[in-house]
Design a protein that fits this description.
Helix content of chain A: 25-40%
Low-confidence stretches of chain A: 79-122, 221-228, 230-266
Low-confidence stretches of chain B: 87-103
Number of strands of chain A: 9
CATH superfamily of the largest domain in chain B: Winged helix-like DNA-binding domain superfamily/Winged helix DNA-binding domain
Structural class of chain B: mainly alpha
Oligomer: heterodimer
Mean pLDDT of chain A: 61
Radius of gyration of chain B: 20 Å
Mean pLDDT of chain B: 78
């Protein structure tokens, strides 16, 4: 193989598009030709520079609002996928839930506790930006791979739940991982706000402090040794919501202003 | 019961789409933004692309390159939009003929900033930008690029060759201009 051939084939070589034999011939040539080696390296650097420039350019970055709004719009356009209201089935299925933390994501709250802030940070990334290292997977897949209890969450909570703050509708259910902890993640819509129900089999709940000195308590135990853990309080988090005005008029959620505040669940 | 099953099927499609396709959203947007150079147009393009992708997700074969599949849909949507706007597609241009006559490949300047690279890439004719971005940024294979652009593989290779040579020429010229400015002349 001559230098001229190498120059012709260098791009295909870098794209791993050459036949095995041609590839070997080219590599043999490179071993003995510093000029061609330098040329191939220069082209490799050029390609990496192009990629870096495009992937790092601020001017090409997506607006966060676009990313946030796109997902519900897509779901709405997907032939009605997943939007229907399903009846309540199997409240007993809830007994498989080991630890549930209800986090009301009225966007970020500057005064939230570290625990709540982490949960918000994790799951804004998950539900809104999809920046997780591991791709979310469906609940049924998680049920077969990581534990049957994930499967029960396909129906629990039901598609529609009425709460003091308004009607919650399930818009998505999946399983995602953040910082090594696996969550079943139920995304709900509370009259235009995103609400996440996070469920994990993390057993550290027994030593967890939810707020002040309060600890989660075991509400019920199933025959297979798992149980529902509830908090007497949940954090209603509000920051500078786009719908702050609407939220202010909405019952319990509306009474939480600025920093996190607590509302009794029961 | 049937509708319940249908809804569950829809849920599964969405979950699979969410897991396979949506992680590529950021790169898909960058691609759209690069081609459109206009944020509103890029957002429309991405939304339309993902809508089409969701609608035909049953055609996606799990285990294959989802980004390449999405890029091919984006290209298809883009072409449709261009046709709708009656823009003439690139077929040939003086640059392409000129580059064929360039007897040597210019050297690559040692220090290139991202801004210089983007500016130089942006000065290339559109069909060279396409293949370079698909190949070097999206890392699609020649075969995938050919399918995406609906052109023979040979055309992809020749466009890549010419496009990269032209890009080097642009970078060299840009670097020379920078040096001239640096010396205060």
């Amino acid at each position: 193989m001559q230098c001229r051939d190498v120059r012709d084939l260098a791009d295909s070589f870098l794209s791993e598009q050459l036949l095995v034999e041609t590839n070997h011939e080219l590599l043999r040539h490179l071993e003995g030709c510093p000029d061609c080696r330098a040329e191939v390296e220069a082209r490799r650097t050029l390609r990496a520079s192009i990629q870096r420039a495009v992937l790092n350019a601020d001017t090409l970055r997506m607006r966060e609002e676009f990313a946030r709004d796109l997902v519900p719009r897509l779901r709405a356009s997907g032939g009605g996928a997943g939007w229907s209201v399903r009846g309540w089935r199997g409240a007993a299925a809830a007994a498989v839930v080991m630890l549930a933390a209800l986090v009301w994501l009225f966007l970020l709250s500057s005064g939230a506790s570290a625990l709540a802030r982490d949960a918000i940070g994790d799951h804004r990334d998950c539900a809104v930006h999809f920046r997780l290292a591991e791709q979310p997977i469906p609940l049924d897949e998680a049920a077969s791979r990581f534990g049957a209890w994930y499967g029960a969450l396909q129906e629990t909570p039901p598609a529609e739940v009425t709460a003091d703050a308004g009607t919650l509708r399930v818009v998505g259910r999946h399983v995602c991982v953040f910082n090594g902890r696996r969550f079943a993640h139920i995304v709900l819509d509370l009259e235009g706000q995103v609400v996440s129900l996070l469920v994990t089999d993390d057993r550290s709940w027994s030593t967890m402090r939810v707020g002040g000195d309060e600890r989660p308590r075991l509400a019920s135990q199933s025959a297979v040794g798992v149980g529902v853990v509830t908090f007497r309080t949940a954090y209603f988090l509000r920051g500078q919501s786009q719908r702050a005005g609407a939220a202010r008029d909405r019952g319990n959620a509306g009474r939480a202003t600025g920093a996190a505040s607590r509302q009794r669940l029961d | 019961m049937t509708s319940d099953r249908g809804r569950r099927g829809d849920e599964r499609v969405w979950a699979a789409f969410e897991a396979e396709a949506l992680p590529h959203l950021d790169r898909l947007f960058r691609l759209a933004m690069w081609f459109e150079r206009d944020r509103d147009e890029a957002e429309d393009l991405v939304q339309e692309t993902l809508k089409e992708a969701l609608g035909s997700f049953h055609r996606f074969r799990p285990g294959t390159n989802c980004r390449a599949w999405l890029v091919s849909i984006l290209q298809h949507v883009r072409s449709k939009r261009q046709r709708a706007k009656s823009r003439a597609p690139f077929v040939d241009d003086p640059e392409e003929r000129a580059i064929n006559t360039v007897p040597f490949t210019p050297p690559i300047p040692q220090e290139i900033t991202d801004e210089e690279m983007l500016a130089a890439l942006g000065r290339l004719p559109g069909h060279y930008q396409e293949v370079i971005v698909y190949c070097d940024v999206e890392e699609l294979s020649y075969k995938e690029i050919a399918a995406t652009l609906n052109v023979p593989i040979g055309t992809v290779m020749s466009r890549l060759h010419r496009g990269r040579a032209l890009l080097r020429r642009e970078l060299t010229a840009s670097s020379a201009r920078g040096r001239t400015r640096g010396t205060g002349r």
